[in-house]
């Protein structure tokens, strides 16, 4: 993935021209005035600061991904391009997440959780979006067609932006200041002729006297990939089989009961790539008004239709055993059954399991609408030092309707078994009338709403010998609400899927903040930020940030930042009803034979805010004797305390198994002899994270062999990742993803005039399998792409991802297909191409 690290000379060379054509790129508002007689921006803002400045140097490391790089490398969604960055870890939900994703796409900077990465759109908050009462932004709501660039701040930024910016910030800058009409079509397919994607977008803009208006429309569609359609996929067997089993026994063709010998291969109906269809409208405007005031606004609407597919519903019901033959609300055990060892347990019941294949696979569908509009008004105060003021309002709303087709009503299922024992126990296919009686479509709805009012003042306070002391102060009011209403059958606990309660709640927060930039000398500059937030839920939070940049020589700059941060509990964490989740776990008692065990998740309205400390320190080296070369090295560390978390259930199971008197047995509601009927995982403020590492970036632009060359290499060395005191460094697991010690992206581009060719590779290092302790192989993905400008109007692009068709590494506790699709490429070789026409 081609990227640029924003620092020192590299910043000046690469981005000042870009910034000069953008308005309100970050923060509340950029005071750049697009008057006809002004041809350049006097001051700009960069991600991570609200202070407007004449250059783009800050103490914090920022990486920029351009729209050209996104298109050249064939990314059709924001989450794909972000997850390719070496600074990402864990297992963020995206196109490859089939189980429990609800079609959302997220970003997970440093692997600290998507809820700890703040996502901004043009420098302002984006509404959380998904299936309802969500704690993160759904990146599907932002079409690639509208992106001018993506800026990734790899530093804690709560003192500037408030809650959620613990691990950093992703700021998506949209296209603006466009004049003309542009039509783009992009598509791709795999070497197996499946998983096709397509996107059609149009962009239209025009200039006015002192302004610009840009409008866009985009349509994209992504097709599915079935797991079993990849020859490296091993069958994933489950004990829930279509013929049914009673107390672990099945009836053969001779009518005899015997132990189950085979399982059901769920890979034949599960996805590696989930289908998705999106419709988007977006607009940007900037208009100079009278009295040196500027009005800006941007609007976005996205409709997403997505679905996931999983194996037919696995149903497990406990059936009462008849004491007399005349009882109709129980099952009668025949002599053949009892001879085979089928018997009632201590409660007088016997377990019946069946994969309800006759109803068809479970099809999860989402229809979501996300709307956002943001407007700002800015101007200058009529005083000598040129103070600037700004006002802004942002409104966002998300609504989602979700269904699960071919769901099974457990109450009706039990009654049907009692009434039709021969039909259920024979192993034969169920009749249509029985299927109609037990199946239903699960319907749920939810949504999120956001209102943000802000006001700010910025400018120069006074001059010192090394320059002007600049500042920014402001205040903000934010209101968030969310809800989620499960199907009534699910709420009543009558389904075979996990029971779930409704969620509904809201909160508001009032904030004040300030920043100061002080040039102590010509070479040393300090950056200071303070923020105070008052929440209606948990109360008050104060955060600060101190950053220093020191230009040791014309070639070398030193930088460092120390900051505190926080994350307020989300609506779902505060007010979410009890929710069941089938987690990949191992039962040490051996009572549960399946890898997925039901865990009851609970929320808590008394949760406090998370607190964090972050540190970065780095060097930027741009040697004058090698034109076009820059090197950055940054050490980073993030520490989170009072983290809102669910304790490690597997660790709790193991501890309780080792000692029945352990507190873990009570904490996780584990019953006598490993009874997991009420296995519970509660949210609590006892969690912690401690992660550190080193980022390296090398960028080199030069001319040779009559060609223009660009080389870029990003490396992240993970030194440590601990969560709740458990070391996950260089570990991979299906539950939480991967924390590889080494991730590397290399990119080399050659071109001249109208064409360019890019070769890139992406490396994920060898890791340890948490479940087995075995080594998990490293992978290296090779990609190639080319761009050709046919004329001033027409540009063609094409490429191949994963040229060598690398297979994903095996993971014993993999979340799907024996691997972790959020970490490794499970689609294989893909071909893509596009055409852009500009009038």
TrEMBL record:
Its main location: membrane. It comes from the Bacteria. Residues 1-35 form the signal peptide. It is a multi-pass membrane protein. Keywords: Cell outer membrane, Membrane, Receptor, Signal, TonB box, Transmembrane, Transmembrane beta strand, Transport. SUPFAM superfamilies: Porins. This is TonB-dependent receptor. The lineage of its organism: Bacteria, Pseudomonadati, Pseudomonadota, Gammaproteobacteria, Alteromonadales.
């Amino acid at each position: 993935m081609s990227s640029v690290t924003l620092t020192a000379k590299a910043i000046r060379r690469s981005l000042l021209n870009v910034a000069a054509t953008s308005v309100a790129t970050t923060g509340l508002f950029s005071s750049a005035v697009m008057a006809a007689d002004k041809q350049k921006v006097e001051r700009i803002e960069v991600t991570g600061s609200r202070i407007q400045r004449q250059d783009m140097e800050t103490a914090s490391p920022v990486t920029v991904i351009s729209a050209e790089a996104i298109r050249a490398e064939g990314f059709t969604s924001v989450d794909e391009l972000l997850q390719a960055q070496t600074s990402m870890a864990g297992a963020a939900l995206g196109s490859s997440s089939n189980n429990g994703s609800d079609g959302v796409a997220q970003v997970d900077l440093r692997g600290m959780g998507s809820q700890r990465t703040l996502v901004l759109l043009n420098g302002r908050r984006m509404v959380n979006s998904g299936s309802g009462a969500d704690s993160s932004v759904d990146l599907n709501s932002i079409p690639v067609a509208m992106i001018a660039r993506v800026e990734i701040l790899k530093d804690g930024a709560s003192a500037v932006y408030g809650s959620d910016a613990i691990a950093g910030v992703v700021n998506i800058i949209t296209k603006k200041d466009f004049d003309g009409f542009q039509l783009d079509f992009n598509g791709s397919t795999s070497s197996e002729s499946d998983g096709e994607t397509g996107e059609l977008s149009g962009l239209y803009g025009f200039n006015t006297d002192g302004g610009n208006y840009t409008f866009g429309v985009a349509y994209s569609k992504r097709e599915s990939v079935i797991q079993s359609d990849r020859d490296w996929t091993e069958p994933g067997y489950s004990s829930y089989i279509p013929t049914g089993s009673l107390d672990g026994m099945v009836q053969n063709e001779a009518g005899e009961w015997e132990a189950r010998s085979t399982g059901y291969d769920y890979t034949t109906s599960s996805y590696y790539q989930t289908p998705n269809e999106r419709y988007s409208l977006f607009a940007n405007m900037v208009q100079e008004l009278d009295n040196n005031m500027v009005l800006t606004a941007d609007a976005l609407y996205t409709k997403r239709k997505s679905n996931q597919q999983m194996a037919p519903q696995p149903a497990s019901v406990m059936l009462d055993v008849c004491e007399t033959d005349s009882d109709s609300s129980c099952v009668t055990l025949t002599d053949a059954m009892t001879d085979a060892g089928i018997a009632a347990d201590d409660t007088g019941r016997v377990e019946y399991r069946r994969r309800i294949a006759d109803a068809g696979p479970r099809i999860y569908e989402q229809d979501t609408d996300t709307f956002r509009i943001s407007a700002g008004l800015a101007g200058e105060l009529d005083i000598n030092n040129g103070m600037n003021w700004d006002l802004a309002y942002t409104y966002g709303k998300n609504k989602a309707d979700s269904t699960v087709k071919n769901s099974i009503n457990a109450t009706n299922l039990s009654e049907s078994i009692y009434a039709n024992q021969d039909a259920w126990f024979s192993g034969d296919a169920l009749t249509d009338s029985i299927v109609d009686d037990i199946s239903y479509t699960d319907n749920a709805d939810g949504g999120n709403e956001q209102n943000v009012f802000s006001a700010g003042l910025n400018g120069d306070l006074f001059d010192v010998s090394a320059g002007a002391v600049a500042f920014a102060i402001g205040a903000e009011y934010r209101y968030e609400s969310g809800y989620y209403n499960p199907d009534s059958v699910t709420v009543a606990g009558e389904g075979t899927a996990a029971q779930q309660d409704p969620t509904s709640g809201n909160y508001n927060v009032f904030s004040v903040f300030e920043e100061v930039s002080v040039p102590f000398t010509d070479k040393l500059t300090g950056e200071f930020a303070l923020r105070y937030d008052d929440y209606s839920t948990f109360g008050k939070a104060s955060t600060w940030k101190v950053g220093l940049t020191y230009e040791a020589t014309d070639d070398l700059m030193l930088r460092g930042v120390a900051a505190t941060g926080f994350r307020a509990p989300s609506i779902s964490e505060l007010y979410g009803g009890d929710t069941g989740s089938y987690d990949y776990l191992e039962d040490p008692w051996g009572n549960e034979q399946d890898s997925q065990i039901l865990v009851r998740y609970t929320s808590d309205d008394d949760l406090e805010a998370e607190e964090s400390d972050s540190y970065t320190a780095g060097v930027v080296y741009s040697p004058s004797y090698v034109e076009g070369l820059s090197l950055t090295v940054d050490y980073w560390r993030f520490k989170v305390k009072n983290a809102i978390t669910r304790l490690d259930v597997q660790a709790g199971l193991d501890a309780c198994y080792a000692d029945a008197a352990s507190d873990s047995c009570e904490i996780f509601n584990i019953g006598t002899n490993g009874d997991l009927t009420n296995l519970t995982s509660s949210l609590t403020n006892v969690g912690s994270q401690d992660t550190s590492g080193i980022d390296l970036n090398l960028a080199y632009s030069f001319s040779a062999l009559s060609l223009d060359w660009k080389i870029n290499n990003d490396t992240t060395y993970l030194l440590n990742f601990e969560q709740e005191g458990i070391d996950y460094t260089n570990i991979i697991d299906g539950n939480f993803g991967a924390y590889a010690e080494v991730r590397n992206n290399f990119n080399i581009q050659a071109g001249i005039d109208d064409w360019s060719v890019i070769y890139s590779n992406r490396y994920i290092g060898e890791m340890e399998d948490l479940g087995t302790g075995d080594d998990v192989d490293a992978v290296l993905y090779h990609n190639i792409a080319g761009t050709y400008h046919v004329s001033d109007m027409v540009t063609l692009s094409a490429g191949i991802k994963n040229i060598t068709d690398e297979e994903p590494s095996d993971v014993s506790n993999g979340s799907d297909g024996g691997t972790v699709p959020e970490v490794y490429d499970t689609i294989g070789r893909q071909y893509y191409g596009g055409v852009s026409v500009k009038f």
